[in-house]
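pasting for ref
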Amino acid sequence: MSVLKTIRKDYLKGELLESEISKDPVSQFQNWLDLAFKSGNDHANAMTLSTCDKINMPDSRIVLLRDISFGGFTFFTNYGSKKGKDIDVNSNASLLFFWPELERQIRIQGNVKFLPTKESDAYFESRPFESKVGALISSQSSVVSSRKEMEILFQKEFRKRENTNIQRPDNWGGYVLVPSSFEFWQGRANRLHDRIRYTLNGSDKSWLIERLMP
């Protein structure tokens, strides 16, 4: 028998009750995110972003949440990356936050839009110089012959741009996932986990709150 089949863990660190949650899922998310940081998780803003390409093949990767603004959850990347190309053909996407130290996860579904240009400019300006150089030389998700080739490109651009103010390249910037559904999951004993779903009512922008079976 695989050792994976023998791993057992009970979840006893918390509960999720309707009487204690916010009516606004964004506020509920912010409360949980703050607790995750306070628990000592320095990467609590790391999230799994899942997209689908033109043949509906899903793909996932970890990106960093940078803000909750413009109606949703923002992140930055190269527009020509795999995720950027997926979003071009299918703007529906999902986010997953997992905080094992609290035995919690949050799933978010929604539609991805471009952030305003000024927002992308401001964030790019705040990045370290080396990160700006990396953004210039990286044709993200494309094939490169070797690590050495990449480092040569970086050093060449670094020397060229040293002591200059690097402007944001047109192929790099921000997105915002505007949520239509949230699911908050709290691990509980005996696999009777708490699952609370918020679904957006498009007509009046209210949130329907429902408990789901584990």
